[in-house]
């Protein structure tokens, strides 16, 4: 995965290429080359690419890694106050807690909007169980609620449903 330092290095090289291309475009206008307007377009494109790389070098792109957390898939996100993640049915309560904390950190964004006075992001975790052939049932195992306004939320509430873990299929030996 690229880091902000990598993007800053790419920005420098892209900036140099943009300046060289701009110099060639100016030379094309002075010498009245037939491709001078294409060179202006290429220079403009490189300018946009350089600006994009520069903005990527400013923001953090890394994800939080919490020991013991399992991989999850984001299956629903309304972009505001609710999200649902999918987890494997073999998860343990300890792994679920770590996974919910990691999801709460990774899904935090300044761009989320609170609706109707609700300033909390609720992330629910679910898995799919198959009680009989041809039947799939979603089973919610826990949820975490965190603040939408503060990245470091000291009042984050985590709730795990132990009665739901009893419904999970037992691993076969």
TrEMBL record:
TM ranges: 12-31, 38-58
Keyword vocabulary terms for this entry: Membrane, Transmembrane, Transmembrane helix
Pfam families recorded: DUF2518
Superkingdom: Bacteria
Family matches, as InterPro entries: Uncharacterised_Ycf51 (IPR019664)
Keyword Transmembrane helix: yes
Protein name from the UniProt record: DUF2518 family protein
